[in-house]
Amino acid sequence: MSDAGADSRELDPLTPYLAPKLAEAAAAFVDALRPWLGVDERWVITPSRRYTAGTKAPSHVDVRGPGGSLLSLRLHTSGDVPGWTAGPLTFTVARLEGVVPPDQDRNLKPILRHLVGLIQGTDVAELALKAKALAKLHKTWATLASMDDRMFRHLERAHSGFAGLLRTGFTCNQDCHFCPEGRDWPNPPDELVFQWLDEIAAAGAQRLNVCGGEPTLWRHLPDLIRRATTVHGLSVHMNTNAIKLRVPTFTASLKEAGLKSVLISLHAVDEALSDSITRSPGTHRRTVEGIHAALDAGLFVILNCCVDTANVHHLPEHARFVREQFVEKHPDNPVRMVNYSQPGKYYNFDEYKRRLVDLEAARPMLTAAARTLDEVGVLLEIAGTCGFPSCVVRDIADLVPWRPKDTMDADHRRSRADDPEVCRGCAAREQCIGPRREYLEVHGTRGLKPFEALPTSDWYARLSKLPVGDAWTIGLDDGPPE
């Protein structure tokens, strides 16, 4: 565990969950597909995952015969009636369009004739039911194929050394447009969540981050926190939208179980804008009440605002609201840290590209917000593992943390552009996680401007003086530059 630059997947000894479920789902889909195609076990059917999660692009299924013949099918499930496309052929439950080309491999003609007969010789209503059942089986497989076990639990590098991230499930009471999680992703069995906790502790994690979905919806949450703190001695942090925290008795039960800190999502302070971002009308007010309740309960509260084109121009207003409501009104336990983060890939990848904010537009908004909060002693995280490239904080470089890039989580580093030319002469290159590849595709190098000298900051010294400082500054052996 001592290699700061090690690949987090190689450090992940936790019990897998997806492999047997994926194999079972693939077998069910293939078994149901064979009668449709009229092929026996000598034909190998290989489904392919969706092109891009969250879009309506079709999925591929390759059918390879014993003599090497290959038929590539595309499955469309976005319309009212599922349909197949095979080369120039398109056939649904109601019609067949196109013809079998003269040069089509003769070994494939029986399959195509079988499909034509299926379409033309079966009652439309009956065929529609069978088609939808087949599409449902494919969706189950494709959903699992779009995931990996790391989404349920993993070890990662953080300010606090090696931290364990543990999801209680993907159920949520909001539907944020930037959320990368599939709304139909399966929740893990309760007993496996507790097993993963034990394995995370045994692997040497020094801190546990509990998240979801929305973890407060999981009925065993207090028991999980209590086990993490009393059995394993872990410092427990939780990501939440705080809607349930507005109930004082519930928040008190989590604190009594050992919860120390919470990261609460507050993506806008205008109620209409917030409810539009979360796509959950009425929840903004409940989140604000939950933040007040968490502060009243004595929890260490960090706020997180995911920034894209929807809210970037509202960031100065966001900072003023946080200062007035959660700092000045809570002198004994104010909000002490705010993250302005750049979301990763949304579940709907097309929407992600449309909403990627231009760094030139973001920089003045983030600068103004940071200065408003710094005046009352709030720590800022803007660049880093889940943040923007460091160029965006060039006007407030002394207000943010700087840490070696090889102490940032390897999986996050892989999501960034690999050494773009504009960054090669930057003095902060080894302290910056870099721009996302998609940003370069959408905005090019706009807003990327190298530092001539490595900035300095006392951010870690300030963090060490906070109530969670001891738990959050371990694991950075040589300390960050100051």
Task: Report on the architecture of this protein.
The chain is of the alpha/beta class. It has two domains: 128 residues, no CATH class; 321 residues, TIM Barrel (Alpha-Beta Barrel). Helix content is 35%, strand content 15%. The protein contains 15 helices and 14 strands. Strands 7-8-9-10-11-12-13-14 form an eight-stranded mixed sheet. Strands 1-2-3-4-5-6 form a six-stranded antiparallel sheet. α1 packs antiparallel against α3 and α5 packs parallel to α6. It is globular, with a radius of gyration of 26 Å. The N terminus and C terminus are likely disordered.
Could you give the topology of this structure?
Blueprint: H1 18-37, E1 44-47, E2 59-64, E3 70-76, E4 83-86, E5 89-91, E6 96-97, H2 109-121, H3 124-145, E7 153-158, E8 161-167, H4 190-202, E9 207-211, H5 221-231, E10 235-240, H6 248-257, E11 259-265, H7 271-278, H8 283-296, E12 300-306, H9 315-327, E13 337-341, H10 349-355, H11 359-374, E14 379-381, H12 410-414, H13 437-443, H14 459-464, H15 469-472
Parallel strand pairs: 8-9, 9-10, 10-11, 11-12, 12-13, 13-14
Antiparallel strand pairs: 1-2, 2-3, 3-4, 4-5, 5-6, 7-8
Helix pairs in contact: 1-3, 5-6, 9-11
